[in-house]
Design goal:
Radius of gyration: 30 Å
Structural class: alpha/beta
Number of helices: 27
Largest sheet: 10 strands, mixed
Bound molecules: zinc ion
Number of strands: 17
Shape: globular
Length: 676
């Protein structure tokens, strides 16, 4: 049903274009500026809106018809969904209006989700069938196996050992895919008490793989260093490593690569390879393997434990729940959440049952629903095994989204319970906070062209610094498709950079904003295009103009034409706010590879003594087409949009004393004669 309207509009455009010499005054569709409509809703319902979106220039059709006097929720849904926005209740009558976020849902949706999941299994057998299928499909959807096959054998580059009070730290760089390294630090126990209490007879300690979230400074963050040091003093080896595009990984793939689905897979791959390495060490006990991290690091701890049975203890902090998949593509970029018809992070965490798990949450972030939604849900599953005692939940009241002392103590006490770590070694004050560069394996500097290169003594010769190569060299056709996102993002970035540079704005801040607007728009349009292929999402029908079946490009135009209007309205409003009209036109010409000027030149060549009026009419049609065409992804589609404008121009000639066919054939003859 969704596509009937655009189908109709497009069909009408095809049908009407030749017959309609002048643009018709259109129905105003009861349109009103979005900002004005929302002001009215504020008054009517006595609420206040805060904006995370730009409503400048956005117009809402049939505005008043969307208001439901009896329901603010329905009213907001009707209004905001048009622009792909969502409202979030902040309490005290304040609502925040944000862009739609695919990984984030309302608390009620989380509750509905676990209620639904609970209907799928009511005993251990039913649950295990789901669990096995889920774990297998998550692994597949993550696309990690083809990459693991391409990884080079484990050969760690280890740095000098640094000795502190009761523990040691050593940096590690491990080559994963050829030429790409995961860099991190290993925190090792080094005291008699821990050795006696924790090590096996042959000197093996438990190990904890510690993926990191998006805390300021990544793994160099103070809260994180304290935790790794303290756990190591207590007898657990901790391996902390850079997330994709952060820390030393930035040297190889750049910062922006983090915002890609590739980060999701690659980070999991780093955790897997570091565990592979850990299990080759003589001081690691393969029977005691933990995963622990906070926020995005918690999401990854759960992901690792979901795809790998070697983990025996799991402790995600301020992360997984039923209504949020993790807001970064490194947590939710690959479509693992749609496994087995739809899952959520808390179900993935539950697949760890009956092994020991502690969930750590607080009332200040999205884990605030632990007591009401997630804990009862996971407890039921542990109950299938009679293993409720293996699940514990620490919930911080008056807390916030952090990894501060209360949560760290909850982590220490969990691993104390599971592995009998000695309480007397738990003393954060004895942890040494190291400077950034001490934690670097290679360290880096930039060359004259801004490219990074490693500077450390141990820096390898094959150190790659191009993320595009990583994708091109390591993914098969299917994999490449999966990682299309990253490749197009890189290509779109280049476009946004180049187009912005061509404006010579001379104001770095302004250029940065303009580049951002163009990049976001290109990304939105391309993403829509990729997710709505005309061939499969649009009913195949007849083109009323030609009487022939709709061609693939027609289907694509119809599918792309259904994208939210806000994509177009936002970029135009943003460009017009920042740029002169002439500069806006330059940007539009970039989108459409100069088709307006090119086509106009053609008319001037073909039409003898073209009049100023003819020039102006054609230019108007072509400029309309140019602005419409920026929302279409492929050059084929853009050419089709211009084709409709060209039909209109030619019709204008024909209805104003000219004969287009004759002029064109004269022109072709003339050109031929010139050639001969
Ligand atoms: Zn991330």
């Amino acid at each position: 049903m969704k596509y009937l309207l655009p189908l109709f509009l497009f069909a009408s455009a095809l049908l009407l274009a030749p017959a309609q010499a002048q643009p018709m005054a259109s129905d105003n569709k009861m349109a009103r500026p979005l900002g004005e409509v929302l002001n009215r809703v504020e008054q009517q319902f006595g609420v206040r809106f805060k904006y995370n979106v730009d409503t400048t220039g956005l117009v809402l059709n049939y505005a008043d018809s969307r208001i439901r006097p009896y329901s603010l929720d329905e009213t907001l849904r009707n209004i905001l969904s048009v622009f792909d926005f969502k409202a979030w209740d902040q309490g005290k009558g304040i609502y925040k209006i944000k862009p739609y976020e695919y990984p984030r849902r309302y608390d009620e949706d989380g509750e509905k989700m676990v209620n639904y999941l609970n209907t799928l299994y009511s005993n251990k057998e039913e649950w295990e069938a789901r669990r096995v299928a889920l774990r297998r499909e998550v692994r597949e959807r993550l696309g990690i196996d083809p990459l693991l096959e391409k990884c080079v054998p484990v050969q760690p580059i280890l740095g000098k050992m640094r000795r502190y009070d009761g523990y040691m730290v050593q940096n590690i760089a491990l080559e994963t895919l050829p030429g790409y390294y995961v860099c991190g630090s290993i925190y090792l126990p080094n005291n008699k008490i821990a050795k006696k209490a924790v090590a096996t007879r042959d000197g093996r300690y438990p190990v904890i793989i510690c993926p990191n979230g998006h805390w300021a400074d990544g793994r160099y963050n103070r809260d994180l260093q304290v935790r790794f040091a303290t756990l190591a003093r207590m007898g657990a080896i901790c391996i902390s490593y850079d997330t994709f595009g952060w820390g030393e990984s930035e040297l190889q793939v750049g910062k922006d690569a983090h915002q890609s689905s590739l980060a999701h897979t690659y980070q999991a791959l780093c955790g897997e390879r570091l565990l592979d390495y850990a299990l080759t060490r003589r001081d690691v006990d393969a029977a005691r393997v933990g995963a622990n991290g906070g926020s995005g690091g918690g999401t990854h701890a759960v992901l690792l434990a979901t795809i790998d049975d070697r983990f025996t203890a799991l402790c995600p902090v301020a992360s997984v729940c039923s209504h949020f998949d993790g807001g970064c593509p490194c947590e939710s970029g690959m479509p693992i959440q749609y496994s087995q018809g739809g899952t959520c992070n808390i179900e993935l965490a539950a697949t760890f049952a009956p092994k020991p798990m502690r969930l750590i949450g607080d009332d200040g972030d999205w884990t605030h629903t632990y007591p009401t939604i997630e804990e009862p849900y996971v407890r039921r599953i542990y109950g299938f095994y009679g293993a409720e005692d293996q699940l514990s939940v620490f919930f911080e009241e008056n807390g916030r989204h952090d990894f501060k002392i209360k949560k760290r103590i909850a982590v220490y006490s969990f691993f104390m319970d599971v592995w009998s770590l000695p309480t007397e070694c738990m003393n954060e004050e004895l942890a040494t906070i190291e400077a950034y560069d001490k934690l670097f394996s290679f360290g880096g500097a930039q060359d004259a062209e801004g490219r990074w290169y490693p500077t450390g003594e141990t820096a390898p010769a094959n150190f790659e610094t191009n993320v595009k190569n990583l994708v091109e060299q390591n993914f098969d056709q299917e994999g490449k498709q999966l990682y299309f996102d990253l490749r197009w993002a890189a290509g779109l970035e280049e476009k946004a950079d180049e187009w912005t540079a061509s404006l010579n704005l001379g104001d770095a801040q302004k250029a940065k904003r303009v580049r951002g607007y163009i990049f976001d728009h290109l990304k939105a349009v391309t993403k829509w295009h990729n997710e709505h292929p005309g061939q499969t999402t649009v009913p195949h029908g007849i083109n009323p103009r030609t009487g022939e079946r709709l061609r693939p490009v027609d289907l694509d135009i119809i599918a792309d034409g259904a994208q939210p209007r806000a994509y177009h309205d936002s970029i135009m409003a943003q460009l017009r706010r920042e740029l002169t009209e002439e500069q806006v036109e330059q940007v539009l010409d970039k989108y459409t590879i100069g088709k307006v000027a090119f086509t106009m030149k053609g008319y001037h060549d073909i039409v003898p003594e073209m009049t100023a009026e003819e020039d102006s009419v054609c230019l108007t049609y072509l400029k309309e087409a140019r602005e419409a065409a920026i929302d279409y992804k492929s050059m084929k589609e853009i050419s089709e949009i211009f084709g409709i404008a060209k039909d209109k121009c030619e019709l204008y000639f024909n209805t104003h004393g000219r004969n287009w066919r004759q002029m064109y054939s004269d022109y072709v003859k003339k050109r031929r004669a010139e050639k001969n």
